[in-house]
Fold this sequence. Notes:
alpha+beta, 39% strand
Amino acid sequence: MTTYIAQFTAKHRLVQTKQNSIFIWQQESGEIDKTLLADKIKRESALHFYSLLAENDEEILTKDISVEVCKTLPFTG
């Protein structure tokens, strides 16, 4: 398994705040599928970020979140 780090930006359809952050994950060595990675970031990071920002217990759905993966690198930290 190789550990990777990604820089990403997430945007929600209704919440005006952007999430600019990093995401660390492990996968078998090989090519990184940015579509699968974006979906993983939505589920494991952005969904929770926007749930914290939601007002009046507004339901946050992954379909309302877009993720742009800016850069990925192997991570040895």
